[in-house]
Write a sequence for this structure.
């Protein structure tokens, strides 16, 4: 196997994706393969979150979005949902100081009002503490759905029309982005989905119009930093045309 330094030296630091979005998938299967309860997979997945956040910010990625819980994930058994919420609280308690020290701004994509009180409070505390940080934006997609987000954006836009902030004719494909959770951020250049599934599962539907996709069979709890670098190197060999020639 190629070592991590050789791999890193293959990255073109002048052509980094500004925004990487990851669908963190495969935790359950990782645990099931080891005859462990699914929540062990989520626990191990959290360790990869810590590492990937660190690696991404260290190499100079400006926006990192991690899909942690979808609007459809409420369909799961209550024990699994509770386990995921506990892991979220644990993650913030363990990592908030380090995120802050590393100048990372935490941002949530999704409606956090629907979260139970404990995770909601932790999330708000983390957002407030890291509000002025500028090295990297870490978006955690939580109770997030791409369709929900578009509806949320339309409702916000209609409110602005109502109060005269924008007219009916002013709305266009660019300024509509300002009504989404990713307001002010560049669209993802690279979307990574581990675990072998070839679908989007309601992720960033508006923002991924021209994103590059990278699918990997590695399960998220096995997704060490080398896989992130491999994805970036692959991305750097693509020819992005945005409809041009
Ligand atoms: C983690 O992987 C993603 C979350 C929804 C938290 P999964 O829990 O979906 O794992 P698999 O896909 O069942 O293996
Ligand atoms: C997508 O994974 C959501 C997250 C990673 C949070 P799922 O495991 O929920 O997606 P499906 O059900 O396989 O499409
Ligand atoms: Mg899954």
């Amino acid at each position: 196997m190629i070592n991590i330094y050789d791999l890193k030296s293959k990255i073109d630091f002048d052509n980094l994706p500004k925004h990487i979005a990851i669908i963190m998938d495969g935790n359950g299967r990782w645990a099931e393969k080891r005859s462990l309860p699914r929540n062990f997979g989520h626990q191990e997945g959290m360790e990869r979150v810590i590492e990937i956040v660190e690696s991404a910010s260290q190499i100079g990625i400006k926006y990192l979005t991690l899909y942690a819980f979808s609007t459809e994930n409420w369909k799961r058994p209550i024990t699994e949902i509770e386990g995921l919420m506990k892991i979220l609280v644990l993650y913030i308690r363990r990592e908030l100081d380090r995120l802050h020290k590393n100048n990372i701004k935490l941002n949530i994509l999704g409606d956090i009002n629907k979260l139970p009180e404990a995770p909601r409070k932790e999330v708000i505390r983390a957002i407030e503490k890291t509000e002025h940080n500028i090295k990297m934006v870490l978006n955690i997609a939580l109770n997030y759905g791409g369709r929900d987000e578009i509806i949320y954006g339309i409702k916000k836009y209609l409110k602005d029309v109502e109060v005269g902030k924008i007219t009916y004719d002013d709305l266009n494909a660019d300024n509509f982005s300002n009504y989404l959770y990713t307001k002010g951020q560049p669209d993802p250049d690279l979307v990574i989905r581990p675990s072998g599934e070839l679908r989007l599962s309601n992720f960033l539907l508006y923002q991924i119009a021209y994103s590059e996709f990278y699918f990997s069979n590695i399960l998220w709890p096995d997704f060490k930093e080398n896989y992130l670098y491999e994805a970036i190197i692959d991305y750097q060999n693509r020819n992005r045309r945005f409809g041009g020639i």
